Amino acid sequence: MDLKGCIFDLDGVIVDTAKYHFMAWRRLAKELGFVFNLEDNEALKGVSRMVSLEILLSIGGVTASAKEKEEFAARKNGWYVEFISGMTPDEILPGSLKLLRDLRKKDILTAIGSASKNAGTIIDSIKLRDMFDVIIDGNKIHKAKPDPEVFLKGAEEMKLPPSCCVVFEDAQAGIEAAIAGGMKSVGVGKPELLGRADIVIPDLRKITIKQLRNL
Ligand code: BG6
Ligand code: MG
User: Fold this and answer.
1) Quick check: 125 and 84 in contact, CB under 8 A?
2) CA atoms of 139 and 103, how far apart (whole Å)
3) Which of 73, 78, 79, 179 has the fewest CB atoms within 10 Å of its CB?
4) Nearest atom of ligand 1 to the alpha carbon of 12
């Protein structure tokens, strides 16, 4: 491919905030009277806060009014923000920084494409803002992954056609969004979950620019 830009999901690709989301959702589930496990958590990865809440409530068989749902989501976010407030650059996942630097050296643009409204806070905490040319987060989009909006906006702000962009994702919904947007995708995680990606790697140490150009 004619590689000109890379769009990175944040949670679970650049940093392991997926564990903090899980801890906060599990706490909410407990308060609502049911158990929420890691396996169930897979479906929440990549999707927006309110869609995540809907999935969680359906797992627990809980019905709630719109007002209650707003309160549940705010409660979960309060805990989540507490968890992420202490994040430092030490929590950047292995291989991320080297890959970002290598891309810079080759003049390949970099973007964040995250569903999270907390993405900016996290990027500042881990001191990575300078490594991204474009940041698209949950505050800039209307449609949750698997809708391609977040990645299409990323490509648009980089002024690149989708076909010149590669998406890095740890969530099934994110891989589907990349495919829907006409982009190549790298699944970061387990092949059994991310099999629709063009290539699946366990972490960002396991990819080179040469491999990306061969996608
Ligand atoms: C995504 C996460 O990056 O952001 C999801 O993978 C999360 O699990 C979503 O629900 C929204 O995050 P936030 O921070 O806006 O609640
Ligand atoms: Mg993710």
Assistant:
1) yes
2) 26
3) 78
4) 6
Give the residue numbers marked as catalytic.
Answer: 9, 11
Q: CB count, 10 Å around CB of 110? A: 20
Task: Please compute the mean of the pLDDT values over residues 14-20 and round it to a whole number.
Answer: 93
**How far is residue 102's CA from residue 108's CA, in Å, rounded to a whole number?**
9
CB 99 within 8 A of CB 207: yes
Distance between CA atoms of residues 197 and 12, nearest Å: 16
Q: Is 172 in the pocket of ligand 1 (CB under 6 A)?
A: no
Cα–Cα dist 50/72, whole Å:
10
Q: Which residue has the higher pLDDT, 47 or 68?
A: 68
Is 2 in contact with 162 (CB distance < 8 Å)?
Answer: no
Per the structure block, which two tokens stand in for 128? 């990575």
pLDDT at 43: 87
- pLDDT single digits (tens) 95-125: 999 999 999 999 999 999 999 999 999 999 9
**The model scores a pTM over 0.90:** yes
CA of 172 to the centre of ligand 1 (A): 14
